[in-house]
Amino acid sequence: MVDGAPVLDAALFDIDTVDAAIGGLTPAKRHAAQLATDALHRALQGVASSSLPLSAASGQRVAVAMSGGVDSAVAALLAREEGAEVVGITVKLWTDPETDGAKACCSPEAVLGARALAHQLGIPHFTLDLEEDFRRRVVDRFIGGYTDGTTPNPCILCNGEVRLAAMIDLAERVGAERLLTGHYARIVEDGDGPLLAAAADKAKDQSYMLAALPPELLGRLGFPLTELTKPEVREIAARHGLAVARKAESQDLCFLAGQGKRGFLRRHGGLRERDGAIVDSAGRTLGRHRGHHDFTVGQRRGIGVSAPEALYVLATDASANTVTVGTRAELEKRSVRVRDVVLHRDGSAVDAVKLRYRSRALPATVSAAGRGRHPSLDVDLGEAFPGVAPGQTAVLMAGEQIVGHGTIAA
């Protein structure tokens, strides 16, 4: 059936295509047809993950990053309703028998769900296998961060260095003008090129997680959900009968889903329980812990030490395997050293910084610097912030626009 057919036509095939061609299948035979259909899409995955051009360019064609969730499904639906010729792309990032694939966004189970959604919408679907690159550039650095006593931010690494650039490349190879995603963020022009900015729905704004995207990629991206809220997105999905309309959101990192950080670090990083001291800022021992990697700066719960006032993690020391705790006043910082900084605009434009995903932007200024890369910069905060965690991403802002980013230094 696919011999000699255009690749985009083959990517539309599903089990119902086979069923209709044969003229009706019993349940047992449908299972066999499903295996054959899966094999076809595994072959298509091979060419999608290559560097081969798959179709001539079309000004009406867009690709949509489909994760199997409601946001990306509605992004594809809206693009189709606007008259675009839509192609679905899903990345496979992680395969692990200990991971709950139903809760992970880039698991083999998520791939099957995304493919089914794409075919329900009449959209050809491709899977892009990035597992090796993801393991090397994201997971290994995640493990290395906890080994060294920092708290890394793998989602920013993944979005900035791995999956979106690869999907944009595939979008071009299938002849699409742009890649659309279900992220809640905006792309704005400030007269000097495109920049990321916060979405209309501040409760769902994901611009922080996209902060490491190179500006040159922004012109090839689109965010159809920019002006929508999450309830509005779910309503659109329900109105069109999409099964994912009420699907719960994943709250975990894709490679941690169902197993938790401690078990993952033990299995994949060899970080096992190791008795160590919990100390105060003067070095006095207050208690014991089972490994510095179980703690992050700013943590309050789970410390296991009684005190007259609440204690917070102030620092972790990987070499000594100690955890330093103290009061909220000791935790607060008015300046932050940021390493591996990238500035898209002059440092004088910076007037705010976000130090955690769910925290609000704080008034801030940076040491004098021009656009480009800098080994380190000092960020002065306009107000004290409790819980500046080494390894997390500092997102530098001018108003609501993201003009740079870096990693919080120890």
Write up what this structure looks like:
The strands form four sheets. The chain has a six-stranded antiparallel β-barrel. It is an alpha/beta fold and about 400 residues long. The mean pLDDT is about 90. It is globular, with a radius of gyration of 23 Å. A hairpin with a 2-residue loop joins strand 16 and strand 17. The chain folds into three domains: about 200 residues, HUPs (Rossmann fold, 3-Layer(aba) Sandwich), CATH 3.40.50.620; about 55 residues, Roll (SH3 type barrels), CATH 2.30.30; about 80 residues, Translation factors (Elongation Factor Tu (Ef-tu), domain 3, Beta Barrel).
CATH topology of the largest domain: Rossmann fold
CATH class value of the largest domain: Alpha Beta
Number of strands: 17
Structural class given helices, strands, pairing? alpha/beta
- Rg, Å, rounded: 23 Å
Main beta sheet, described? 6 strands, antiparallel, barrel
The percent of residues in helical segments reads: 25-40%
Encode the helix/strand succession as letters.
HHHEHEHEHHEEEHEHHEEEEHEEEEEE
**Low-confidence blocks of residues:** none
CATH architecture of the largest domain: 3-Layer(aba) Sandwich
The fraction of residues assigned to DSSP E strands is 15-25%
Tally of individual helices: 11
* Tally of individual domains: 3
| Annotated CATH homologous superfamily of the largest domain | HUPs
Shape: globular
N-end to C-end Cα span: 59 Å
Could you give the order of strands across the largest sheet?
12-15-14-13-16-17
Average pLDDT level? 92
Keywords:
six-stranded antiparallel barrel; 11 helices; 17 strands; alpha/beta; 410 residues; Elongation Factor Tu (Ef-tu), domain 3; globular; Rossmann fold; SH3 type barrels
